[in-house]
Amino acid sequence: MEYEVEVRPAVECPGRENMGSNFGLMTTSESPASEPLMNERLESKLDSLEKQGVSLLDRRQVYLSDDVQVGRICRAAVLYPGTRLVGAQTFIGPGAKIGTEGPATIENTVIGQDAEVAGGYVSGTVLLCKAKVGSGAHIRPGTLFEEEASSAHAVGLKQTILMSFVTMGSLINFCDALISGGTSRRDHTEVGSGFIHFNFTPRGQSGDKATPSLVGDVPHGAFLRQPRIFLGGLSAMVGPQKVGFGSLTVAGQVIRNEVPPNRMVGDAPRRFDKDIGSLSVTPDRILRLNANYIGQLIALQAWYRQVRLARIPVGREYEHIRIVTQAAMDLLDVCIDERVQRLDQFTKERELTLPAFSFETSDVPPCPLHIEPAAPYTEHTAWVAQLSEADVQQGVSWLHSIVARTEQMNPAYQQAG
Known about the structure:
single chain; alpha/beta; UDP N-Acetylglucosamine Acyltransferase, domain 1; 13-stranded parallel sheet
């Protein structure tokens, strides 16, 4: 496999105890200070960064807010002119590049080794190794880019998870979605340019966002062995929705129905005239898809806790990997809370009972794979690629059991099928 990554040592990168439990939700408030004092503090921080091996291509155009910890900016990181770092949770891993194509604001965001933000605004987000955000981005809390996931220019994301290698074109807007599929950087799921995910509906009294869409899934997608998915550009998808592995949706359509695996789907424009009251009909399908989506997030969090984190050896040279991986797992708490709140709003308005989801770690079955830390550390996607088929089948079954357990908490699950 061609995923070998040099694990570079971090410099003064503190442990995960500094991450906080409300990742991505902090706001920055600087105490009033005179301009000369602020400049003095900034210059002192920039001096410290240069001493610890951070490259400042033009220090006159780099800004750090008072709460940014210089020890969380690692050796060999590169800050291009126009870089603005804000927030105590901000972390820049070794070899990461910020602002390669234009001004970039990074707020309470954790960026892994050799990842890149070309330009734009990124807040409350986690980027794993070699992930890339294109220029003109607007990336908001609850967003996760796994290894080598990427977006081109002018992409807006919120509460969206791109699993390893997933690629987005330009001029895309996605909120409330999880996307997986593909096996490598060359064989990846892709979203074509000009795609919109509609994550709000006018159902009920004030509308709702019980609209998460699942493209691929976690149990199979985590093992990087499923066929890629292609969502054609100049299109849209009305959430909540599902798209199966190996499918292609043609450009220039609105996806309104679930897409099974290994299909090529095109939906011609349609015309209809219905009573507005039809929007308020209780949709069992929406409850089913939301319960499934929450189950997917819980399964992904178990994967991070019991596999990804458990594999990282103890040692300072691996601490930057642990910080970024822990941040990704913490981010999933934010994503789960968001989905439960949106579903709670949906059910209360219809006088339904919110499924009694359980999020206790002790309720999640243990991973059947033999996982232990080993040095030297094998980069995650390379480790997944060398798993045996028997290991993969055990792992898929384990993650599926977590999803199924969550789905079955939904009272409408049995009747919805």
